[in-house]
Amino acid sequence: MVQKNKSKSTLPEKQVVLPFVKSIEIAIKSIRSRIFRTLITTMSLILAISFYSYIKTNSHIITGIFFSGDKIAIQTLSHQGYELPDEGEAYTTTPKERWILFLSLLVCVVGIVNTQLMAVSDRFREIGTMKCLGALDRFILRLFLIEATLQGLIGSAIGALAGAVISMTGSLIKFGTMAFVFVNLNDIVISIAASVFLGCFLSIVGVLYPALLAARMRPVEAMRGRD
Amino acid sequence: MTTATNIVRISKVIKDFKLSKTIVHVLKGVDLEIKTGEYISIMGPSGSGKTTLFNMIGGLDKPTSGSVFIDEIDISQLDAYELAWLRCRKIGYIFQTFNIIQVMTALENVTLPMIFAGVSDDEAREKGMDLLDIVGLKKRFQHKPFELSGGQQQRVAVARALANDPAIILADEPTGNLDLTTGDEIIKLLKMLSREKGVTIISATHDLKMLNVSDRVIWISDGRIEKIENRDELSISLGQIGEKWE
Asked: In terms of CA atoms, which chain A residue is nearest residue B56?
């Protein structure tokens, strides 16, 4: 093959590319072949988001029952230990619930950061190789962000649905069909969507630092005797 | 080679590393010119600065002072984008530890540099298959790295290094992790490529068989070039004439 580098005394042009579709393809491949690690990362997200979604759905159901004005049902509520709001106000989560919620989300993010840091050091060699092949920092960053977004989407979708279903089943057992007569289904759908959104956000927040670390790594460091 | 242009020119390269408080002088002024199409072996004990010199040529590291020219472009002047482009298009890397990307198949590994270079999917696939054919792995294009032996992984690495028709292939102990026979095959493959494609091959090695196919051998010791031997001189000094692969 004839070399085509005869008159290249000009500086090379900037033309290294990684099309977005390709990034997604690589990210999916990476998730699929590291399914176990992905499951662990996703699991903490599923748990935290299902808790969030559970609390939210519960509060919608209780608000529904409370506004129904059904005396017996409201009595059941206070027997269950719910702090009922004053007349005309919506039921909101208690400070204690909010605090536990906050803690669970925090633990979830810390867990994600932790597993993603592991993932990065696991993939040192892979990242270094890609950089030797011409990958830019932002290719690597993008790969990690896409992976995290996909994990976030899947994990929080599962979590949000699970939380809502558990909450509804629980209410069904406690209050009977009355639980669903008064509830605003729209509210529940919105809170599921919010949970999914929150989950994606947390997943991305969790991967940000590890991904930056990976992207900034110089290829030399990646190549230096690590297995 | 009739084209006697310098593909690599290293001029007064000095490299220091800071280790806590002491400064280690790894390269102490290296001058070197490598012509297009040459097959060069770099020899030297570990700690001699061999790998550092290697990283300089590959644009993976920058010299403390002095310059490295690839195709008469001073690569220390390049920004991150241009360096990435250089790595992608001009240089092919082969590592001792193969460094095949584990999550991708053989073909995907080979096509990755072409994707970075902006080659279309179909074209990359076609060329990737051709390259796998050259290294004798066409039938295994669907295989993942863990389904391939060490020698086969290194072949994939060779094919990947060739993906964008680089001017230079940098091979850091390419036979270091392979048994004798497989190592031989990789050396043969590299020699064949250097002859048929006119690729400049620069390889760090301890493997004497590698020296036999080299046009020149550069001996490095203690951060300097100790001597440069041409092949004819080399055969005498090694006491064997390795024309087996000619």
From this structure: A220
Neighbours of B31 (CB within 10 A): 12
User: In one letter, which amino acid is B159?
Assistant: A
User: Which CATH number fits the domain that encloses residue B48?
Assistant: 3.40.50.300
d(CA B129, CA B34): 31
Local confidence band at A139 (pLDDT 50, 70, 90 cut-offs): very high
Q: How many domains does chain B have?
A: 1
CB distance A133–B71 less than 8 Å?
no
B18 part of a folded domain: no
Q: Residue B197: give the domain boundaries.
A: 38-62+78-245
Beta strands B168-172 and B200-204: pairing type? parallel
Examine the pLDDT at A121 and tell me if it is beyond 50.
yes
Three-state DSSP at B140 gives helix
Confidence of residue A174 (pLDDT cuts 50, 70, 90): confident
Does residue B222 surpass a pLDDT of 50? yes
Confidence class of residue A6 from pLDDT cuts 50, 70 and 90? very low
DSSP state of A63: H
- Alpha carbons A174 and B187: distance in angstroms, whole number: 75
Supply B246's token pair.
């000619």
> B167 contacts in A (CB within 8 Å)?
3, 5
The mean pLDDT value for B144-162 works out to: 93
- CB contact under 8 Å between A34 and B103, yes or no, is yes
Which residue in B has a C-alpha nearest to residue A225's C-alpha? Answer: B97
Q: How far is B237 from chain A (nearest CA, A)?
A: 33
| Rg of chain A over all Cα atoms, to the nearest angstrom | 24
- Angstrom distance (rounded) from CA A100 to CA A70: 30
Q: Which helix (H) or strand (E) holds B107?
A: helix B106-116
What residues of A are in contact with residue B55 (Cβ under 8 Å)?
220
Half-sphere exposure of A198 (CA within 13 A, CB side): 26
Number of inter-chain CB pairs under 8 A, A vs B: 115
Residue B130 lies in a domain: yes
Q: How far apart are CA B187 and CA B41, in angstroms?
A: 12
Residue type, B238: L
Mean pLDDT calculated for residue range B235-246: 49
Specify if B222 maps to a domain. yes
- The reported pLDDT for the residue numbered B1 is 42
Let me know if residue B48 belongs to a domain.
yes
Q: Are A226 and A124 in contact (CB under 8 A)?
A: yes
Segment B97-110 mean pLDDT? 92
